[in-house]
Design a protein that fits this description.
Layout (H helix, E strand, L loop, with lengths): L1 E6 L2 E6 L4 H10 L4 E5 L6 H11 L4 E5 L3 H45 L3 E6 L4 E4 L1 H7 L3 H4 L4 H4 L1 E4 L9 H8 L9 E4 L5 E12 L5 E10 L1 H15 L9 H18 L2 E9 L2 H8 L1 H16 L7 E6 L2 E9 L2 H16 L2 E3 L2 E3 L3 E8 L6 H17 L4 E4 L4 H8 L1 H8 L1
Parallel strand pairs: 3-4, 16-17
Antiparallel strand pairs: 1-2, 5-6, 5-10, 7-8, 8-9, 9-10, 11-13, 11-16, 12-13, 14-15
Helix pairs in contact: 1-2, 10-11, 13-14, 13-15
Length: 416
């Protein structure tokens, strides 16, 4: 006889059998959660229980004794227990599945991001690494888990080489997020160092207590190289690699400051190639650019390493000579540069004969600040052009009046 008993915890399917043989047959044909065995039935009870156990080895078999009414009450209690247990198991299974899915989602996410992630407990032992952290530290998870944090994440000050406070320790001690630490070196498992940027944050339980910390870090080598290149490009001419106006101005101001302190003179030579526009017009800008690069090399070879050769743009160059004893030193360099420039120049099968006009100003004789020194070297260069080019002139106070009177300033700009 079969029946369905319904309880608050859910329904249970119940079947009654009057003989042991029929019950054994049912046990072998389908899954049963529990068997309530009436020990008062005639026959060998132990033999019947043994046969039932063989037929359903994973089923709970409970022998019952006592009056029929008492058995029924116990049966109802047992059925309610079973219903509750099945419901609890179902809920637990659903929770376990949800937890597994959440952990798997977190694992995939952490292994997919570009940053390294490392976690530690409050005792300072590693509890987790994602795949990027494994790669960056050189420690696989199997070897790293349980290791002291300082062993897996050993960081030094990039400037001094001295050990620094681990950010995870600070995050836990101060219970706050620690921002990116600049100039930090991570010592990898193989002993090599890599520049990193890192931050750390405490991990809390549901009561708000700190239970550990997580460190997020990345390889900073590439970003630092990009920053370095950007800074270089901001201060250098892309064609010749020489310093540009921004860097020249910075160095000129520094040279003037040092000159004042040490009682030394500073010279600025403004170099403009004569009729260089004709090279670009007749041979093309590609040939012109090659010529400019070659002349930049020649100018650099005429000065000391402590001096600065700058390209302002076009065919204009400026040479900064710091720490000179007299204007004669500047005149000597000007003559040397003019000789280097006028030497025949071979570019892509073309032989070029180029000359230049040079203007020279001296600090402090011709000005007290960088802007004035620049302007007066430029004025002296225009005077050289007005005088016939292929030479040099020092700045003189009457030059602006002479150029204005002769109307040469505009003319020089047109034909230089």
């Amino acid at each position: 006889m079969a029946a369905v008993a319904t309880y608050a915890d859910g329904p249970c399917h119940v079947e009654h059998f009057g003989t042991v043989s029929r019950a054994i047959e049912a046990l072998t044909s389908r899954a049963v959660d529990v068997v309530l065995f009436n020990a008062a039935l005639p026959g060998n009870t132990e033999d019947a229980l043994g046969r039932a156990a063989v037929a359903a080895p994973d089923t709970l078999i409970v022998p019952l004794v006592g009056p029929q009414l008492e058995i029924r009450g116990w049966l109802n209690a047992m059925l309610r227990y079973i219903a509750r247990r099945k419901a609890a198991e179902s809920t637990l299974h659903s929770a376990e599945e949800a937890l597994f899915e959440e952990k798997e989602r977190a694992r995939v996410t952490l292994n997919s991001i570009g940053d390294a992630v490392l976690a530690t407990d409050t005792q300072g032992y590693v509890t987790y690494l994602n795949s990027v952290a494994e790669s960056l530290t050189g420690w696989p998870s199997g070897a790293a888990l349980g290791q002291p944090l300082a062993t897996v994440f050993n960081v030094l000050d990039g400037s001094t080489g001295e050990p620094i406070m681990n950010p995870a320790v600070t995050a836990m001690q101060e219970d706050r997020t620690i921002g990116l630490v600049a100039d930090c070196i991570l010592i990898q498992r193989n002993g090599e160092g890599v520049a990193i940027e890192d931050s750390a944050a405490p991990i809390h339980d549901r009561n708000g207590s700190v239970t550990g910390a997580v460190i997020v870090f990345r390889d900073a080598s590439q970003s630092r190289e990009v920053t370095r290149k950007m800074a270089y490009l901001a201060q250098h001419d892309p064609l010749t690699g020489l310093p540009n106006r921004a860097l020249l101005t910075e160095r000129l101001r520094l040279a003037i400051s040092v000159g004042r302190r040490d009682g030394k003179q500073v010279a600025l030579l403004f170099v403009d190639l004569d009729y260089f526009k004709r090279v670009n017009d007749s041979l093309g800008h590609a040939i012109g650019d090659q010529a400019l690069s070659a002349i930049a090399e020649r100018l650099s070879g005429c000065v000391r390493k402590s001096d600065t050769v700058c390209r302002l743009g076009g065919d204009e160059f400026v040479i900064l000579l710091g720490d000179i004893d007299s204007p004669d030193d500047a005149a000597h360099i000007a003559e040397k540069m003019l000789a280097a420039i006028t030497a025949p120049l071979s570019v892509s099968g073309h032989t070029l004969q180029i000359s230049a006009s040079v203007g020279i100003s001296i600090h402090p004789d011709h000005g007290a600040d960088a802007d004035t020194i620049m302007q007066r070297a430029d004025t002296a260069m225009y005077q050289t052009k007005a005088d016939g080019r292929d030479g040099y002139r020092f700045f003189e106070a009457e030059m602006k009046r002479e150029l204005a009177a002769r109307g040469s300033d505009h003319c020089a700009k047109e034909v230089r």
